[in-house]
Amino acid sequence: MTSRTRVYLFLLLGLPLTMQAQSPEPSKAVQEFIRVRAPRIVLTHVRVIDGTGGPAQEDRNVVIVGSKIAAIEAGADVAMTDGTSVLDLHGYSLMPGIVGMHNHLFYIARPNLNGDRKYEEPLLAPQMTFTAARLYLAGGVTTMRTTGSVETYADLNLKRDIDAGKLPGPHIDVTGPYLEGSESHFIQMPHLNTPEDARQLVEYWADRGVTSFKAYMNITRAELKAAIDAAHKRGIKVTGHLCSVTYKEAAELGIDDLEHGFFVNTELDSGKKPDVCSQSEGDETLARMDPDGSEAKTLIATLVSHHVAITSTLPVFEQYSGGGRPPVRQRVLEAMTPQAREDFFLLRQQAQPTSPPKFDSILLWKRDLVLERAFAAAGGLLLSGPDPTGNGDVLPGFGDQRGIELLVEAGFSPAEAIRIATLNGAIYLGREKEIGSVAVGKSADLVVIKGNPAKLISDIENVEVVFKDGIGYDSQRLSNSVRGRYGQY
Ligand SMILES: [Zn+2]
Q1: To pair with 73 at 20 to 30 A between CA atoms, which of 10, 42, 92, 124?
Q2: What's the CA gap between 202 and 213, in Å, rounded?
Q3: Does residue 51 contact residue 423 with C-beta atoms inside 8 Å?
Q4: CB of 289 within 8 A of CB of 266?
């Protein structure tokens, strides 16, 4: 050791804890959820599912120093010393924090919803700033994209307060207000009339700190193009839940990501007019698109060659996928207000309409699973997120876990499904050097899970501790703190 390194080491050790750690001192409100915090933390004898899709590594020690992963070594007993916390994790698994790519901070309220699934207009999207942030972190989500905002200032300020250590929650990529056309069911969305409107909206919100945008069902090609160009000028990506614009058109306009797997592509919908959403909103295209046919192959090749990611949102479609579904988890029901729970059961019980549906929903479900797999096999970047609003029954955090389970149902291995929900999201966000896998030098954004999700994917529901920037949060305490509140605030 040269004298220079000795001096350097001395200086490093001499730094106070607050300067070594990158994250600011947590407030009292955050501290109540912290279970593990120390300058150095050693997780011993843990199974590592590293997020790259490779096989799990048994019996490892993972060393966290400050906010980073400092070492991954062979499993060994380690003594507790001053400044070092040791967690014996025999029987536990460690995976990267989930990077949730369709994770809203609002709920959808349906006024006067009744047993026929009918409700009164307008649909409203109340903010879930309090409950959603806690449920995401409790569920293992350490980074999320809001994928369309309703109260954009609230989302931006929430991100600021979480980053400042004032409130508990994940890292947030705030998406701007929905880029929606002039015809819309949603009274809270901006309704664009011209490409100039789209450009102005993007520039206004990019100036205020928004880091992503989402186009919606009734946008025109010209408006979408204007939004994409304005966003790309600032290095900001654009995704879309589309209908008026087909997947192929959007890819050629330069969109970066498409939401909802292959459920909302409208290119084969009969009577589809340019720039106008079709009646089936994509069901007909999915029903007509043979995964082995030339249309599917051309579409996937177009998406891959234009580097367009696809976000899988299987949980929001699961209720249309036929029988044999697992019962709803008690903890999911307990998180909701009585009203949200009542609406949840009304929507769920009536999921199968009495008259024969135009398109067989079970066929659509199966076909989407095949197309998502084919897209990934062709080299496409598949992302994952639950869309926790859709039918009111997919909750933050819990829905992220369910999405990973359903990717396994689609035919991905558990390790591949975990990669889709972690490293792939990090790659899309351009943050794969810092987050998305369990690797030395990356942020200690990690999920401690009881059991072995590499073998039994449903073990992913058994989250115990969630590390964000090297601080371990208690999952149960976070979700208990919002019991009976989701659907209210
Ligand atoms: Zn959504």
Answers
A1: 10
A2: 8
A3: yes
A4: no
Closest CA to 43 of 441, 458, 438: 438
Q: Which two tokens stand for residue 203?
A: 């520039």
**Could you read off the pLDDT of 47-75 as tens digits, one per residue?**
999 999 999 999 999 999 999 999 999 99
DSSP state of 281: T
The DSSP-derived string for 333-395 is HHHB-HHHHHHHHHHHHT-S-SSPPSS-HHHHHHHHHHHHHHHHHTT--EEE---TTTTS---
How far, in Å, is the centroid of ligand 1 from the Cα of 32?
31
Residue corresponding to tokens 């943050």: 431
Average pLDDT over the chain, rounded to an integer: 93
- What is the 102 CA–ligand 1 centroid distance (Å)? 6
- Report the DSSP beta bridge partners of residue 29: none
Distance 471 CA to ligand 1 centre (A): 30
CA of 384 to the centre of ligand 1 (A): 12
Tokens of 146: 């809001």
* % of the chain residues with pLDDT over 90: 86
Token reading at 192: 């664009």
State the distance from the centre of ligand 1 to the C-alpha of 217, rounded, in angstroms: 11
Please state the pTM of the whole predicted model.
0.94
Q: How confident is the model at residue 13 (pLDDT cuts 50, 70, 90)?
A: very low
CA distance 269 to 287: 9
- Phi, psi (rounded to 5 degrees) for 431: -115, 20
Predicted confidence at residue 320, as pLDDT, reads 84
Ligand 1 mean position, distance from CA 326 (Å): 23
Closest-CA residue to 398 (of 470, 326, 294): 326
CA distance 308 to 313: 16
How far does residue 120's CA lie from ligand 1's centre (Å)?
20
- Closest listed residue to residue 390, CA positions, set 292, 246, 263, 251: 263
Select from 260, 228, 237, 262 the least CA-distant residue to 248: 262
CB atoms within 10 A of CB 14: 8
235: nearest Cα among 257, 214, 259, 206: 206
Question: Residue with structure tokens 């006024």?
Answer: 111
Over its C-alpha atoms, the chain yields an Rg (Å, rounded) of 23
Q: How far is the CA of 38 from the centre of ligand 1 (A)?
A: 38
For residue 25, the SS3 value is: coil
